[in-house]
Amino acid sequence: MVHLGLIGKPLSHSFSPRYFAEKFAREGLADHRYDLFELADVADFPGLLKSTPALRGLNVTIPYKRSIMPLLDVIDPVAAAVGAVNTISIEDGRTTGYNTDVDGFRSTLAPLLNGLKPRALVLGSGGASRAVVFVLRELGIKFRIVSRSRDRGDMTWDLMDPSVVNVCPLIINTTPLGMSPDVHQCPVLPYEAIGPKHCLVDLVYNPEKTLFLKEGERRGARTLNGLAMLHAQAEASWRIWRKSVT
Ligand SMILES: NC(=O)c1ccc[n+]([C@@H]2O[C@H](COP(=O)([O-])OP(=O)(O)OC[C@H]3O[C@@H](n4cnc5c(N)ncnc54)[C@H](OP(=O)(O)O)[C@@H]3O)[C@@H](O)[C@H]2O)c1
Question: Would the pTM of this model clear 0.85, i.e. be above it?
């Protein structure tokens, strides 16, 4: 039995169990299972490892992507640089933390760029934002982080005027604004400054088309939701686990 799963809280709306169940069925991996392990506190993690000795890998989601790090034996250099872990491999009781949101975002962004390096606005400064910023730095793309706090970003929302939007053709939403069930919310931007030269990327994947993307689309911008990134990060996690289970 190869046991995999997800830790976080709450987990009721997670996409991962179905994704991996379908994958295991498709690939004939009858001895693989992927379960939800909702932890009331990150300190319950060592207890989970003890009580579930067949565990070979875990995904990590909100709110434990950062707080899990001190509880792991090894942190991969990319996860250390990002400052967040969303994937853990467990080999002979030894835990290693990785960040596959980086792989997910990198593979999503590459086909959009056509070799160009557009200036970017990154909306939000949380865990996903850190993975996005890591990739933008890697690609040499200049960016500004928009945050509710001056301490966490390069600019606050009240400074977002049409001239800023005009010089940033790539806008990436890493906030949960617009995510189901709050589908009528969207980042507060001067949308009138958005046009065909813009590309709007939303990390939110539910709904498929957020209000942010709709506002961009009706002004001629190219748009992309978070679904491709979600699949790419899950596949990157799978590649990590597969190395230790085959
Ligand atoms: N597609 C994918 O594969 C993928 C992967 C990871 C995450 N996501 C999605 O990305 C979103 C963020 O996830 P996360 O893990 O980064 O969450 P997070 O760590 O909670 O960060 C979200 C950030 O958004 C900003 N924010 C939150 N509420 C806001 C509000 N009401 N108004 C303005 N800004 C607000 C905050 O930045 P400031 O405090 O700086 O304002 C916050 O740090 C979620 O919807 C998640 O589902 C998608």
Answer: yes
